[in-house]
Amino acid sequence: MISQSQIIKLIFGLKINQLRRKKKLTPGELAERCGLSNSYLNEIEKGKKYPKSDKIFSMAEALNVKYDDLVSLKLGKQLELISDLLNSHVFKEFPLEMFGIEPGKLIELISNAPLKMNAFISTVMEIARNYEMKQEHFYLATLRSYQEMHDNYFEELEDAVDLFTVKFKIKAKAQLNRRHLYDILESEYGYTIDKKKLTKNKALHHFRSVFVPATKKLMINDGLTESQKAFLLAREIAFNYLDLTERPNTTPPYKARSFEEVLANFKASYFAVALLMNRELVIEDLRELFKSPNWDNKEFLSLMSRYEASPEMFLHRLTNLLPRYFGIKNLFFLRFSHKSNTNVYHLTKELHLSKLHNPHGNELNEHYCRRWVSLNIIEDLKKIQKKKSMSNPIVGVQRSKYFGTENEYLCISVAKPNSPEPNSHISVTVGFLIDEHLKKKLHFLDDEDIITRVVNETCQRCPIEDCKERVADPVVIEHQNRMELLESNLAELSK
Predict the structure, then answer these.
(1) 239 φ/ψ angles, rounded to the nearest 5 degrees
(2) Do 383 and 253 have their domain in common?
(3) Residues 304, 432: one domain?
(4) What mean pLDDT is reported for the chain?
């Protein structure tokens, strides 16, 4: 994260660079007038050094500006947006070092083309306003990029889990003793765990847990499944064991106050899933699953229940291990939520490894393709629930060919009621780009019982005719056709 002192250096350096250029002075000329070395002036302009007062007076005199104007955190009108960006909370929180970016390099880029950068920043900010993008959207997008950079596998967190299991003498087995988690929180970290207070509070029924730091009380919603409760306990252990102090106190977090908090939540969640689903055991089970020549829904659900894992935990664990241990890197993860008696599906989480795969998020209130297994499996679940009361997950598999492209994905999707939300469902999906490597790894890929469907992104962008699943007109395609007709007629007139 960037400190306030770094921001001051960056703005001062940018200001010196711009004033020097305006006066048409070379770095050597300004350095000589101020009694500085070329190298030291270069460090100042890159935002790495901040001179003492006497040197600032010399620079102000050489550049014919007031001392107070030079040390002010405001830039000129043309660079006002850049000044706002550098002083913004988002910029200060943005983890440039995580992406190998030095703040000085960013300032150098701005210095070389300030007006163009100002226009670019203005454009980005306008787009953000128009689409109602909030600060937390930037934080979450940054986190996704961080995960994608590392193929969503973090050796230091896996190692931390190994050390933790040794310290607390936890044996590697598929079903971790949940009582052990309660004991560690209560005896090692001084927690009090309450399953009643949050459950009775109707205004807070959508929260899965609330932590009160002052009393170290963890309130858990008793309407959750046992696997969900185990995840919350393991994640709480992770916050303490990894010493993650800047953290959210609710699940789900109701607002992201900083990127450090978002990152801490991710690290604790990763640790929790890795603790509950031992790496070596899962890898061995996946090898056996992939050897089978036929896909079996029951076998997949049985494997998931062996670890007493929620669908989201299980599929997310696949995204950790498949790239590293199976070389399967072209994959995506999606989570959809849906309220009964509506035709709206919300994409609440996504992750793309190696590239931006189809399908991907769309924030334009368009209707996602109803041929996706992620959506129709929720409809299948609702039909089953009409006949009988059930809370168990169901699984579906599909080969999805994207209309107009050569892309084809194997999609495995699991749907279940969304505890503790009434009349709410979720589906989680992991999709694999079908290529030669995947064909070698997944022996069941050519199972004739796996349905193949032609799919697209959203109804509004889909030209497929006579689609029985369509829920909205292809307005984007119709607009494109009108524009093409307009252009062809204008070209005809020009002949």
Answers:
(1) -55, -40
(2) no
(3) yes
(4) 87
Q: What's the one-letter identity of residue 403?
A: F
One domain, residues 249 and 308: no
pLDDT, tens digit, 9 for 90 and up, residues 329-349: 999 999 999 998 888 899 989
Structural domain count, the chain: 3
Same domain membership, residue 320 and residue 203: no
- Sorted by sequence, the CB contacts under 8 Å of residue 169 that are 6+ apart come out as none
CATH number of the domain residue 250 falls in: 1.10.10.2910
Final residue of a domain: which of 276, 292, 322? 276
Domain extent for 216:
152-276
What pTM does this model have? Answer: 0.79
Strand partners, 413: 396, 429
| 177 Cβ contact list (under 8 Å, min separation 6) | none
